[in-house]
Specification:
The structure is a single chain. This protein folds into two domains: 275 residues, 3-Layer(aba) Sandwich (Rossmann fold), CATH 3.40.50; 64 residues, no CATH class. The chain has 346 residues and is α/β, with parallel strands linked by helices. The chain is built from seven helices and twelve strands. About 16% of the residues have low confidence.
Protein backbone atom coordinates (compact mmCIF):
# COMPACT_ATOMS: atom_id res chain seq x y z
CA UNK A 1 0.00 0.00 0.00
CA UNK A 2 1.13 3.53 -0.72
CA UNK A 3 2.12 6.05 1.92
CA UNK A 4 1.89 9.84 2.09
CA UNK A 5 3.79 11.79 4.74
CA UNK A 6 2.70 15.33 5.49
CA UNK A 7 6.10 16.68 6.52
CA UNK A 8 9.15 18.59 5.46
CA UNK A 9 10.87 16.63 2.68
CA UNK A 10 14.02 15.90 4.67
CA UNK A 11 12.14 14.89 7.82
CA UNK A 12 9.75 12.71 5.85
CA UNK A 13 12.60 10.92 4.08
CA UNK A 14 14.15 10.00 7.42
CA UNK A 15 11.09 7.82 8.13
CA UNK A 16 11.74 5.60 5.10
CA UNK A 17 13.88 2.46 5.19
CA UNK A 18 17.23 2.12 3.46
CA UNK A 19 17.18 0.90 -0.13
CA UNK A 20 13.40 0.49 -0.19
CA UNK A 21 12.59 2.59 -3.28
CA UNK A 22 12.97 1.65 -6.95
CA UNK A 23 13.13 5.17 -8.34
CA UNK A 24 12.43 8.76 -7.39
CA UNK A 25 10.48 11.07 -9.71
CA UNK A 26 9.99 14.60 -8.48
CA UNK A 27 9.90 18.33 -9.15
CA UNK A 28 11.19 20.53 -6.30
CA UNK A 29 9.74 24.00 -5.72
CA UNK A 30 11.39 26.36 -8.19
CA UNK A 31 13.66 29.01 -6.77
CA UNK A 32 12.23 32.36 -5.72
CA UNK A 33 8.88 31.94 -7.44
CA UNK A 34 6.21 31.29 -4.81
CA UNK A 35 5.61 31.37 -1.10
CA UNK A 36 3.54 28.39 0.00
CA UNK A 37 3.02 29.82 3.48
CA UNK A 38 4.81 26.93 5.19
CA UNK A 39 7.63 27.58 7.65
CA UNK A 40 10.95 26.20 6.46
CA UNK A 41 9.77 25.64 2.91
CA UNK A 42 12.31 25.11 0.15
CA UNK A 43 12.47 27.67 -2.65
CA UNK A 44 12.73 30.99 -0.82
CA UNK A 45 16.31 30.80 0.45
CA UNK A 46 18.10 34.19 0.37
CA UNK A 47 20.58 33.00 -2.27
CA UNK A 48 20.53 30.46 -5.09
CA UNK A 49 23.50 28.71 -3.47
CA UNK A 50 21.54 28.12 -0.26
CA UNK A 51 18.62 26.77 -2.26
CA UNK A 52 20.89 24.33 -4.09
CA UNK A 53 22.53 23.28 -0.84
CA UNK A 54 19.18 22.39 0.70
CA UNK A 55 18.16 20.36 -2.33
CA UNK A 56 21.47 18.49 -2.26
CA UNK A 57 20.71 17.60 1.37
CA UNK A 58 17.29 16.26 0.44
CA UNK A 59 18.61 14.15 -2.43
CA UNK A 60 21.49 12.91 -0.29
CA UNK A 61 18.80 11.32 1.89
CA UNK A 62 17.07 10.00 -1.24
CA UNK A 63 20.37 8.25 -2.06
CA UNK A 64 20.08 6.25 1.19
CA UNK A 65 16.52 5.21 0.41
CA UNK A 66 17.12 4.31 -3.22
CA UNK A 67 18.09 0.80 -4.24
CA UNK A 68 21.61 0.41 -5.63
CA UNK A 69 20.26 0.06 -9.18
CA UNK A 70 17.75 2.89 -8.70
CA UNK A 71 17.38 6.15 -10.59
CA UNK A 72 16.47 9.72 -9.73
CA UNK A 73 14.47 11.87 -12.17
CA UNK A 74 14.24 15.59 -11.39
CA UNK A 75 12.14 18.12 -13.30
CA UNK A 76 13.36 21.63 -12.58
CA UNK A 77 12.91 25.02 -14.17
CA UNK A 78 15.09 28.10 -14.16
CA UNK A 79 14.63 31.56 -12.69
CA UNK A 80 15.67 35.07 -13.63
CA UNK A 81 17.30 37.63 -11.39
CA UNK A 82 14.82 39.39 -9.14
CA UNK A 83 14.91 40.77 -5.61
CA UNK A 84 11.75 39.32 -4.08
CA UNK A 85 9.45 36.37 -4.53
CA UNK A 86 6.28 36.98 -6.51
CA UNK A 87 4.35 35.26 -3.75
CA UNK A 88 2.45 33.03 -6.11
CA UNK A 89 -0.12 35.74 -6.63
CA UNK A 90 -2.57 35.82 -9.50
CA UNK A 91 -3.72 38.96 -11.24
CA UNK A 92 -7.36 39.80 -11.73
CA UNK A 93 -6.87 39.06 -15.44
CA UNK A 94 -5.60 35.55 -14.93
CA UNK A 95 -6.97 32.12 -14.15
CA UNK A 96 -3.61 30.40 -14.37
CA UNK A 97 -2.56 27.22 -12.61
CA UNK A 98 -5.67 25.24 -13.26
CA UNK A 99 -7.97 27.74 -11.56
CA UNK A 100 -10.55 27.69 -14.33
CA UNK A 101 -13.41 28.98 -12.21
CA UNK A 102 -13.84 32.78 -12.64
CA UNK A 103 -14.31 33.05 -8.86
CA UNK A 104 -10.65 32.13 -8.39
CA UNK A 105 -9.35 35.18 -10.26
CA UNK A 106 -6.92 37.14 -8.13
CA UNK A 107 -6.46 34.21 -5.76
CA UNK A 108 -3.17 34.15 -3.85
CA UNK A 109 -1.49 30.75 -3.81
CA UNK A 110 -0.83 30.76 -0.07
CA UNK A 111 -3.14 33.58 1.01
CA UNK A 112 -0.48 34.80 3.43
CA UNK A 113 0.46 38.03 1.66
CA UNK A 114 4.19 37.81 2.36
CA UNK A 115 7.07 39.01 0.26
CA UNK A 116 10.50 37.48 0.65
CA UNK A 117 13.69 39.42 -0.07
CA UNK A 118 16.24 37.53 -2.14
CA UNK A 119 19.97 38.15 -2.33
CA UNK A 120 21.42 37.48 -5.75
CA UNK A 121 24.88 38.94 -5.39
CA UNK A 122 27.05 38.40 -8.44
CA UNK A 123 24.05 38.42 -10.75
CA UNK A 124 22.85 41.30 -12.86
CA UNK A 125 19.24 42.29 -13.48
CA UNK A 126 17.88 40.21 -16.37
CA UNK A 127 20.43 37.40 -15.77
CA UNK A 128 19.18 33.84 -16.13
CA UNK A 129 20.44 32.14 -12.97
CA UNK A 130 21.08 28.67 -14.36
CA UNK A 131 19.39 26.82 -11.49
CA UNK A 132 18.94 23.47 -13.31
CA UNK A 133 22.63 23.10 -14.11
CA UNK A 134 23.70 24.41 -10.72
CA UNK A 135 21.68 21.57 -9.20
CA UNK A 136 22.90 18.99 -11.71
CA UNK A 137 26.56 19.77 -11.07
CA UNK A 138 26.06 19.91 -7.29
CA UNK A 139 24.40 16.48 -7.25
CA UNK A 140 27.13 15.07 -9.46
CA UNK A 141 29.70 16.39 -6.99
CA UNK A 142 27.73 14.71 -4.19
CA UNK A 143 28.20 11.32 -5.82
CA UNK A 144 25.30 10.94 -8.23
CA UNK A 145 25.95 9.87 -11.82
CA UNK A 146 24.56 12.58 -14.08
CA UNK A 147 23.29 10.39 -16.90
CA UNK A 148 21.18 12.65 -19.08
CA UNK A 149 19.51 15.99 -19.54
CA UNK A 150 16.08 15.59 -21.08
CA UNK A 151 14.29 18.57 -22.62
CA UNK A 152 10.62 18.97 -21.84
CA UNK A 153 9.30 20.83 -24.89
CA UNK A 154 6.01 22.56 -24.15
CA UNK A 155 3.77 23.16 -27.19
CA UNK A 156 1.55 25.38 -25.00
CA UNK A 157 3.99 27.38 -22.87
CA UNK A 158 2.98 30.15 -20.51
CA UNK A 159 2.58 33.37 -22.56
CA UNK A 160 5.22 36.02 -21.90
CA UNK A 161 5.17 39.70 -22.81
CA UNK A 162 8.94 39.97 -23.20
CA UNK A 163 10.28 41.68 -26.32
CA UNK A 164 14.03 41.18 -25.87
CA UNK A 165 14.18 37.37 -25.78
CA UNK A 166 12.18 34.36 -26.92
CA UNK A 167 9.27 32.97 -24.94
CA UNK A 168 10.50 30.17 -22.72
CA UNK A 169 8.95 26.88 -23.76
CA UNK A 170 11.13 24.20 -22.21
CA UNK A 171 12.28 22.80 -18.89
CA UNK A 172 14.77 20.13 -17.91
CA UNK A 173 14.40 16.62 -16.58
CA UNK A 174 17.69 15.25 -15.26
CA UNK A 175 18.30 11.52 -14.97
CA UNK A 176 20.68 10.50 -12.19
CA UNK A 177 21.77 7.08 -10.96
CA UNK A 178 23.55 5.75 -7.88
CA UNK A 179 25.70 3.36 -9.90
CA UNK A 180 27.20 3.18 -13.38
CA UNK A 181 24.89 0.23 -14.08
CA UNK A 182 21.26 0.63 -13.08
CA UNK A 183 17.72 -0.48 -13.93
CA UNK A 184 16.44 1.16 -17.10
CA UNK A 185 13.72 -0.46 -19.20
CA UNK A 186 14.35 1.13 -22.59
CA UNK A 187 11.85 -1.16 -24.27
CA UNK A 188 9.03 0.04 -22.02
CA UNK A 189 9.36 3.58 -23.39
CA UNK A 190 10.51 2.84 -26.94
CA UNK A 191 8.87 4.90 -29.68
CA UNK A 192 7.32 3.59 -32.91
CA UNK A 193 9.54 4.04 -35.93
CA UNK A 194 8.19 6.87 -38.06
CA UNK A 195 6.47 5.64 -41.23
CA UNK A 196 8.48 8.06 -43.32
CA UNK A 197 11.72 6.31 -42.34
CA UNK A 198 10.64 2.86 -43.52
CA UNK A 199 11.56 1.86 -47.07
CA UNK A 200 11.61 -1.35 -49.05
CA UNK A 201 15.11 -2.73 -49.63
CA UNK A 202 15.98 -4.30 -52.94
CA UNK A 203 15.23 -8.01 -52.91
CA UNK A 204 18.61 -8.69 -54.46
CA UNK A 205 21.48 -6.77 -52.98
CA UNK A 206 23.46 -6.85 -56.23
CA UNK A 207 22.30 -6.13 -59.73
CA UNK A 208 19.24 -4.04 -58.81
CA UNK A 209 20.80 -0.69 -58.01
CA UNK A 210 18.13 1.15 -59.98
CA UNK A 211 15.08 -0.57 -58.52
CA UNK A 212 12.45 1.69 -57.04
CA UNK A 213 12.00 1.94 -53.31
CA UNK A 214 8.31 1.75 -52.43
CA UNK A 215 7.29 2.90 -48.94
CA UNK A 216 4.83 0.80 -47.00
CA UNK A 217 4.70 -2.22 -49.33
CA UNK A 218 4.72 -5.74 -47.95
CA UNK A 219 6.26 -7.39 -51.02
CA UNK A 220 9.85 -7.00 -49.90
CA UNK A 221 12.05 -6.92 -46.84
CA UNK A 222 11.58 -3.75 -44.79
CA UNK A 223 14.19 -1.77 -42.91
CA UNK A 224 14.48 1.73 -41.51
CA UNK A 225 16.29 4.19 -43.72
CA UNK A 226 19.06 4.93 -41.24
CA UNK A 227 21.82 7.43 -41.91
CA UNK A 228 25.24 6.20 -42.92
CA UNK A 229 27.94 6.98 -40.40
CA UNK A 230 31.64 7.24 -41.19
CA UNK A 231 31.46 7.68 -44.98
CA UNK A 232 32.99 4.61 -46.66
CA UNK A 233 34.55 3.41 -43.45
CA UNK A 234 32.49 0.25 -43.23
CA UNK A 235 31.67 -0.75 -46.79
CA UNK A 236 31.87 0.42 -50.39
CA UNK A 237 28.49 -1.14 -51.16
CA UNK A 238 25.67 1.23 -50.13
CA UNK A 239 23.28 -1.69 -49.70
CA UNK A 240 25.29 -3.63 -47.15
CA UNK A 241 27.18 -0.94 -45.24
CA UNK A 242 27.06 -0.95 -41.49
CA UNK A 243 24.71 1.85 -40.52
CA UNK A 244 25.63 2.33 -36.88
CA UNK A 245 28.26 4.42 -35.15
CA UNK A 246 29.51 1.29 -33.40
CA UNK A 247 30.22 -0.41 -36.72
CA UNK A 248 27.62 -3.11 -36.13
CA UNK A 249 25.16 -3.99 -38.87
CA UNK A 250 21.85 -2.23 -38.47
CA UNK A 251 18.89 -4.47 -37.63
CA UNK A 252 15.37 -3.25 -38.18
CA UNK A 253 13.07 -2.93 -35.18
CA UNK A 254 9.49 -1.76 -35.12
CA UNK A 255 10.44 0.70 -32.36
CA UNK A 256 13.37 2.97 -31.64
CA UNK A 257 14.97 4.25 -28.47
CA UNK A 258 13.10 7.16 -26.95
CA UNK A 259 14.72 10.48 -27.83
CA UNK A 260 15.78 13.05 -25.23
CA UNK A 261 13.37 15.80 -26.30
CA UNK A 262 9.89 15.07 -24.93
CA UNK A 263 7.04 17.12 -26.36
CA UNK A 264 4.29 17.17 -23.75
CA UNK A 265 1.58 19.78 -23.34
CA UNK A 266 0.99 21.25 -19.92
CA UNK A 267 -2.22 19.97 -18.41
CA UNK A 268 -3.96 21.89 -15.61
CA UNK A 269 -5.56 20.03 -12.75
CA UNK A 270 -8.52 22.09 -11.60
CA UNK A 271 -8.04 21.46 -7.88
CA UNK A 272 -4.27 21.97 -7.85
CA UNK A 273 -2.27 24.96 -6.66
CA UNK A 274 -0.77 25.97 -10.03
CA UNK A 275 1.95 24.09 -11.92
CA UNK A 276 1.42 20.33 -11.84
CA UNK A 277 3.21 17.48 -13.54
CA UNK A 278 1.49 16.45 -16.79
CA UNK A 279 1.00 12.69 -16.30
CA UNK A 280 2.39 12.03 -19.79
CA UNK A 281 5.64 13.71 -18.77
CA UNK A 282 6.45 11.44 -15.86
CA UNK A 283 4.98 8.20 -17.20
CA UNK A 284 8.18 7.38 -19.15
CA UNK A 285 10.26 8.02 -16.03
CA UNK A 286 8.19 5.57 -14.00
CA UNK A 287 8.00 2.91 -16.72
CA UNK A 288 11.73 3.05 -17.45
CA UNK A 289 12.85 3.44 -13.87
CA UNK A 290 10.81 0.79 -12.07
CA UNK A 291 9.24 -2.60 -12.49
CA UNK A 292 5.65 -3.46 -11.65
CA UNK A 293 5.43 -3.94 -7.92
CA UNK A 294 8.30 -1.52 -7.31
CA UNK A 295 8.03 1.64 -5.25
CA UNK A 296 8.18 5.16 -6.67
CA UNK A 297 9.10 8.07 -4.41
CA UNK A 298 8.23 11.77 -4.71
CA UNK A 299 9.54 13.92 -1.82
CA UNK A 300 7.78 17.01 -3.24
CA UNK A 301 4.43 15.39 -3.94
CA UNK A 302 2.24 18.46 -4.51
CA UNK A 303 -1.12 17.41 -5.92
CA UNK A 304 0.00 13.77 -6.11
CA UNK A 305 0.49 13.13 -9.82
CA UNK A 306 3.59 10.96 -9.35
CA UNK A 307 1.75 8.72 -6.90
CA UNK A 308 -1.36 8.52 -9.08
CA UNK A 309 0.61 7.57 -12.21
CA UNK A 310 2.60 5.01 -10.23
CA UNK A 311 -0.55 3.44 -8.83
CA UNK A 312 -2.25 3.39 -12.24
CA UNK A 313 0.72 1.46 -13.64
CA UNK A 314 1.04 -1.23 -10.99
CA UNK A 315 3.65 0.46 -8.80
CA UNK A 316 3.58 1.34 -5.12
CA UNK A 317 4.25 4.92 -4.06
CA UNK A 318 5.62 7.06 -1.25
CA UNK A 319 4.90 10.78 -1.29
CA UNK A 320 5.97 13.64 0.98
CA UNK A 321 4.71 17.21 1.09
CA UNK A 322 4.90 19.92 3.71
CA UNK A 323 1.52 21.42 2.88
CA UNK A 324 -1.50 19.68 4.48
CA UNK A 325 -3.81 21.02 1.75
CA UNK A 326 -1.78 19.31 -0.97
CA UNK A 327 -1.48 16.09 1.03
CA UNK A 328 -5.26 15.95 1.34
CA UNK A 329 -5.62 16.70 -2.36
CA UNK A 330 -3.27 13.85 -3.24
CA UNK A 331 -5.08 11.43 -0.94
CA UNK A 332 -8.39 12.32 -2.57
CA UNK A 333 -7.01 11.70 -6.06
CA UNK A 334 -5.48 8.39 -4.97
CA UNK A 335 -8.79 7.21 -3.54
CA UNK A 336 -10.31 7.39 -7.01
CA UNK A 337 -10.90 4.26 -9.02
CA UNK A 338 -8.82 3.47 -12.07
CA UNK A 339 -11.80 4.50 -14.21
CA UNK A 340 -11.64 7.96 -12.67
CA UNK A 341 -7.91 8.06 -13.34
CA UNK A 342 -8.63 7.34 -16.97
CA UNK A 343 -10.99 10.32 -17.03
CA UNK A 344 -8.04 12.45 -15.88
CA UNK A 345 -6.05 11.02 -18.77
CA UNK A 346 -3.62 9.06 -16.61
Amino acid sequence: MGQIYCADALEGLKKIKDKSVSCCVTSPPYYGLRDYGIAGQIGLEPTPEEYISRLVGVFHEVWRILQDDGTLWINIGDSYYHTQSNNGGYSEKSTLAGFTNPNTKGRIANECGKTVRLNMQGLKPKDLIGIPWMLAFALRADGWYLRQDIIWNKPNPMPESVTDRCTKSHEYIFLFSKSPHYYFDAEAIAEPVAKSTVVRLKQDVKGQAGSERVPGKANGPMKAAAPRYGGKKYSEDPDIFFRTKSGNAYEFHQKRNKRDVWTVSTKPFKEAHFATFPPDLILPCILAGSQKGGTVLDPFLGSGTTAVVAKANGRDYIGIDCNPVYCKMAETRLSNTFEQMQIEGI
